[in-house]
UniProtKB/TrEMBL annotation:
GO cellular component, one term: membrane
Signal sequence segment: none
SUPFAM superfamilies: Multidrug resistance efflux transporter EmrE (SSF103481)
UniProt superkingdom: Eukaryota
Protein name, as recorded: EamA domain-containing protein
Pfam families the UniProt entry points to: Mg_trans_NIPA
Entry's Gene Ontology molecular function annotations: magnesium ion transmembrane transporter activity
Keywords: Membrane, Transmembrane, Transmembrane helix
Protein topology in the membrane: Multi-pass membrane protein
Transmembrane segments: 20-45, 52-76, 88-107, 119-140, 160-179, 191-211
């Protein structure tokens, strides 16, 4: 329960951060969990620490530094009144949803058949679904921050924040289900780095595309 409360607190902080900074900065920094995971799995779970593990951690840290240094500085802003035209009813969002749906149609049968054979399968499923979680988190957090700065009535009387919140929670639960499936079969030292790598790539790519963060 201590751990679960810590996770919830950390994710609330993450959620708020999406309202103030580009996802290309917020999401990669979360990958620092790979470093702590290596320490925990080595000292607590007694999993072996290899040279490859150490090299991977160094690559993760270097990647975080590079992504953050070259991330976009601008934050895309919108309101409940403009979210339909600025986010939902756009070519970028339509293409993203098409890619998301197509990827799921391919990966769902693949995961049922090969999920227990490779750590990548369940984690790819998680990353695909979690990309939608981050897209919704970015939208919800932006509207929440706007409401805090401009008055509750400006955003919270609209259905959009609640729609984004519901989709965010549902997709987060679904994606974590696939991570748990992978953890029941494979070592944490395999699952966690793979998860953070694919999750970060999918999330930054999705949010960067939908919200034009790399324009």
């Amino acid at each position: 329960w201590f751990g679960i409360l810590g996770i919830i607190g950390g994710e609330v902080g993450n959620l708020i951060a999406y309202g103030y900074a580009p996802a290309a900065i917020v999401t990669p920094i979360g990958s620092i969990g790979v470093v702590t995971n290596v320490l925990i799995t080595t000292w607590v779970l007694k999993e072996p620490l290899t040279i490859l593990n150490i090299f991977g951690v160094l690559c993760v840290v270097a990647g975080i530094v590079i992504v953050v240094l070259f991330a976009p500085k601008a934050v895309i802003t919108f309101s409940s009144r403009t979210v339909w035209n600025d986010v939902i009813f756009t070519r970028h969002f339509g293409i993203y949803l098409a890619v998301l749906a197509g990827s799921l149609m391919i990966m769902i049968p693949v995961s049922r058949k090969y999920g227990k054979k490779s750590v990548l399968i369940y984690i790819i499923m998680c990353a695909i679904i979690a990309s939608l979680t981050i897209v919704c988190a970015k939208s919800f957090s932006t509207l929440l921050i706007s409401s805090a700065e401009n008055g509750i009535g400006t955003e919270l009387l609209s259905p959009w924040p609640y729609i984004f919140l519901i989709v965010m929670v549902i997709t987060a639960v679904l994606s974590m289900g696939y991570v748990n499936k992978a953890m029941m079969i494979f070592d944490n030292s395999q699952v966690v780095p793979t998860y953070f790598s694919l999750f970060t790539t999918a999330s930054v790519g999705a949010v960067g595309w939908v919200y034009h963060e790399f324009d």
